[in-house]
Amino acid sequence: MSLRSSVWISFGRSGGSFVLQFISSIALARLLLPSEIGIYSVSMAAIGVLQALREFGVGRYIVQTPELTEDRLRTAFGTAIVIGWSLAAAVFFGRHLVADFYSEPGIAHILALLSINFLLLPFGQPAMAVMRRERRFGQSTAVSLGSSMVGIVVSITAAALGEGPVSMAYGAIAGSLTTTILALTFQRDHILLLPGLSEWRDIWRFGAVASGSNVVVSLAAAAPDLLIGRLLGFAPVGIYSRGLSLAMIFERVFSGSLNWVVGPELASMRRDGRKLTALVTTTTDVTVAIGWPVLIFLAFNADAVISLLYGEKWMAVVPVLQFLCVARGVQMFVTSAPAVYEGTGAVKLQLRNEIIIQVISVSMILLGALYSLEAVAALRIVTATCVVMIHLTVFRMYAHIGLRHLLVSLWRPAVMALAFAALQLLMSIVKPAVPSNSWEAMAEIVVEGIVSAAWYILLMKMVGHPVYEEIKAMFSSLMRRSGMGPRVSNEQ
């Protein structure tokens, strides 16, 4: 399968998952209170580190190892079971400690349910990794979308029945069970795969470093919820989580899709002795060219977006979302860093870099939480700047890309982003005040969205960005299929 085909399949996977998660977030925001969503977010954050340990680098090891033998595969499975089941016990028996720390008994119930995930996921983990290694992205997409659909239906149904924050735990279990069943359906030889530990030294040596990086990243992801929940309360956690989920829409749909495909591709290129520079540069260029306008539009129209999606009780999300959009835009310079780490197997460098980044990140969150939720969001911009400078080390070392090279290669997206921001500023000046209802918010977003999209496509054409040619080719293909475009004759 070609890289382009793989990317399109990956977009279908992440795009489909995004639509499902987006619908779910809207429905749950209408069914649950900010404090209820905050309780679940804190529960998930409390086991975030254990989630990172559960993977133990097994999937990454299977993707990047030069030779995947039967013994290595069985050892990966055995390792996943040992780690996963041990962590399940830790979550279950430690649930009351977390609940007591936050003085919220409901957390204990949620953690007891989430411990089931640690028992289920190891059975499908090697199968999912093998599918990625072999670039069977269509099957991986089916697994991802299927599990998302089941989990979301269960969560919304339970919330509608009045289960409160526990409803999302039910959905998480249903999604994990579906992932395991579908993964084994596509990788049937793994149904009878026996766990082993004969190659444990190789895998555990890799996993110890890889999981160390995952733990550090998970700590950073969990830190806002844990610190905000302790210092500011559960409702601010819910507000922050809604803002962050919107600010990261593009990364989950687009950047995540690219990295999901580019990581294995870089691993293959490195095994073949090919240079990584062009692919990393192109990936970054395409990402920021599409990502920056999305974030700019979201920041300028935050009030209308929040009003439309979540309702008036969530309007406190607006300033948080605007700061987070700026932070994610800065960090987008190194959005392909995870793929570079995965493709090169540079787990030690990743661990070092993540430790430095997360020390800075947690310090900024703690400092902000001492003042307000808006301060937490604003200081994420400082953290994002540090992230860029630190992750550039892996770019320089393995892709021979420094800051100057990166900035020069991104001149076209930068010009387009500035011109696009100018239009958003102009529209924000001339448009009326905050929309008074959801219908006004919808009309405002639709009109400004159409104008903004047309303006940005024109900007891409003016600077000659490659994405414009992709859009034109896609549009022409759609026109031909609909019978509205010129047909190519097969006659000679």
Oligomer: single chain
Structural class by sheet pairing and helices: mainly alpha
Low-confidence stretches: 488-492
> How big is the Rg?
23 Å
Cα shape: globular
E-strand count: 0
What is the count of helical runs?
Answer: 22
Helix content: over 70%
Distance between the termini: 30 Å
H-E string: HHHHHHHHHHHHHHHHHHHHHH
Number of domains: 2
**Biggest sheet, open or closed, and with what strands and sense?**
none
What proportion strand? under 5%
Average pLDDT reading? 82
Write the layout of secondary structure elements.
Blueprint: H1 3-31, H2 34-46, H3 48-55, H4 58-64, H5 70-101, H6 106-120, H7 125-133, H8 137-160, H9 166-186, H10 200-231, H11 234-247, H12 249-271, H13 277-300, H14 302-309, H15 317-331, H16 337-344, H17 347-369, H18 373-399, H19 403-409, H20 411-430, H21 438-463, H22 466-482
Q: What keyword list fits this structure?
A:
mainly alpha; 0% strand; 492 residues
